[in-house]
Design goal:
The structure holds 2 protein chains of 2 kinds. By secondary structure, chain A is mostly helical. Chain A contains 9 helices and no strands. Classes of the chains: A mainly alpha, B mainly alpha.
Chain lengths: 177, 212
C-alpha cells in the first residue's frame, strides 16, 4: 500500500492528473471507512471530514518530502482533522499518534465492509456448511476440490452448498422484510 | 458537494508542485525575528563592548550554548512542520546541551571558595535575565509561528514548544550581546530558565496560534 500510494503521490506532484485523481479516490475510500469507525456508523460528519482531509492533502502537498513515507503523512493529516473536529464539537478524545496501518487496512474499504457483512451472515450456518460455502462461494474452489478438502462426496457438497444458499437467501429476505 | 466531484476538480486543476523549502522558510523567519530582537536590544538595553567580550571564553561559552539550542529548536520545528515526521534528534541535542552546561556549572561551583558560590550562580542580573530573554524571544516566536502556519504542523502543542525553544534560544543569543555575566552556573540557571519558559509558553500558544 505504502509503495503504491507513494508512487501515485510522486507522479501527482510531477503533474500527472490521472495519478492524482486515482490517489485522492483511493485515499477518500480509506478515509471514509476510517472516520466511520472512529465516529460510529451513520455519523453525519464523516463525509465532511473526508472532504476536509482530501482538501488538506491537496493544499499541503508541497510540504510532503519525497524522502518521507507517505502513509504516515496522510494519517497525521487525518488525525489532525479528526482532533480538530472533536475540538469543534467539544469532545475531548485521544486519537493514536501513529496508526497509519489502521487507516490503510482492508477493513476501511467498501470491499471490507461487504466482507464483514458476509462473514456475519455465514456465522449463522453450522461450521461444516459454513466452511463449504466459504470454499465454494468465496474462495472459488470447484465442487470437486471442496469435496476433496472436506472428505465428503461431490454430490453431498452440492446439496450442502445448495441448501446453504437457500437458507442465507431466506435469512436475508427475512431481514429485509 | 460530492466527494467524487471535489476530487475530479482537484485532479483536473493540478499542476506540477515543487516541494516547499521548509528549512529555508524557518531559517528566514528565525533570522528576521533575530534582527528584530537585535533592534529591540540595542534600543532598550544597549550592547556590551563586543571587541572586549569576544576575547573572553565566557562570551563564546554562552553563545555556543544558545546557538546549539537554537539549532535543536530549528530541527524540531523543521520536523514538526511536516505531518507524520516525528521529532528526530532535537530532544537528544537539547538534553545533551543542558547536561553539558550543568556539568560546567557544577565544576565551577565545586572549584570556588564556598563564600563565592552564591555570587557565581546569581551573578548581578539574575532577577532580570530570564525576563529579558522572554521579551527578546517574542518577535522570533511570532515570525516562526507565522511561517509554521503556512506549513502543515499536525501536533500543535509540540510544534509550538519547538518554536518557543527556537525563539528562546535565539533571543538568548541576542541577549548575550548585552549580558556580561561570566559564570557557567549563571548561564545554566537563568538562560535555561528563560529558554525553557519560552518553550512552555510557546507550546501553550501553539494550540491556538498554529491551527490551519
Amino acid at each position: 500500500m505504502e509503495s503504491r500510494l507513494k508512487a501515485l503521490m510522486i507522479a501527482a506532484l510531477d503533474g500527472d492528473r490521472a495519478a492524482y485523481g486515482e490517489l485522492l479516490g483511493v485515499l477518500s475510500g480509506y478515509l471514509r471507512g476510517h472516520f466511520r469507525r472512529r465516529l460510529g456508523p451513520g455519523a453525519a460528519d464523516v463525509e465532511d471530514l473526508v472532504q476536509e482531509t482530501v482538501l488538506a492533502v491537496h493544499l499541503k502537498r508541497g510540504v510532503y518530502d519525497r524522502g518521507q513515507p507517505f502513509t504516515p503523512w496522510v494519517y497525521a493529516i487525518a488525525r489532525y482533522k479528526l482532533l480538530d473536529h472533536f475540538r469543534r464539537v467539544g469532545a475531548r478524545r485521544a486519537v493514536p499518534l501513529d496508526d497509519a496501518g489502521e487507516l490503510f487496512s482492508l477493513e476501511n474499504t467498501e470491499e471490507g465492509a461487504v466482507r464483514r457483512d458476509v462473514d456475519k451472515l455465514l456465522a449463522r450456518l453450522p461450521p461444516r456448511q459454513r466452511q463449504l460455502m466459504a470454499d465454494v462461494k468465496l474462495t472459488g474452489l470447484s465442487m470437486e476440490e471442496a469435496a476433496a478438502r472436506s472428505g465428503m462426496s461431490v454430490s453431498a457438497v452440492k446439496v450442502a452448498v445448495h441448501r446453504g444458499m437457500k437458507r442465507l437467501e431466506k435469512e436475508v429476505g427475512d431481514e429485509d422484510r | 458537494m460530492k466527494t467524487a466531484d471535489l476530487i475530479d476538480a482537484l485532479a483536473a486543476g493540478s499542476t506540477p508542485t515543487p516541494p516547499i523549502p521548509v528549512a529555508r522558510r524557518i531559517a528566514a523567519a528565525a533570522l528576521l525575528g533575530a534582527a528584530l530582537a537585535l533592534v529591540l536590544l540595542v534600543a532598550w538595553l544597549g550592547l556590551r563592548p563586543l571587541g572586549e567580550a569576544a576575547r573572553t571564553g565566557s562570551f563564546w561559552m554562552k553563545a555556543g550554548y544558545t546557538l546549539i539550542l537554537s539549532l535543536a529548536g530549528a530541527m524540531g520545528v523543521g520536523r514538526l512542520a511536516r505531518p507524520g515526521a516525528g521529532l528526530g534528534r532535537a530532544p537528544l541535542i537539547v538534553a545533551a546541551a543542558i547536561a553539558g552546561m550543568a556539568i560546567l556549572g557544577a565544576i565551577e561551583i565545586a572549584a570556588a571558595p564556598s563564600a563565592d558560590r552564591g555570587d557565581l550562580w546569581l551573578g548581578h542580573t539574575w532577577q532580570s535575565c530570564s525576563l529579558h530573554i522572554l521579551a527578546l524571544a517574542a518577535p522570533v516566536y511570532l515570525g516562526v509561528a507565522w511561517a509554521l502556519r503556512r506549513l502543515a504542523p499536525t501536533r500543535l502543542t509540540l510544534a509550538g514548544a519547538a518554536a518557543g525553544l527556537l525563539a528562546g534560544a535565539v533571543g538568548a543569543t541576542v541577549y548575550g550581546l548585552y549580558c556580561d555575566e561570566t559564570a557557567a552556573a549563571f548561564v545554566f540557571a537563568w538562560y535555561t530558565l528563560g529558554i525553557g519558559a519560552c518553550a512552555a509558553i510557546g507550546g501553550f500558544l501553539g494550540r491556538r496560534l498554529l491551527r490551519w
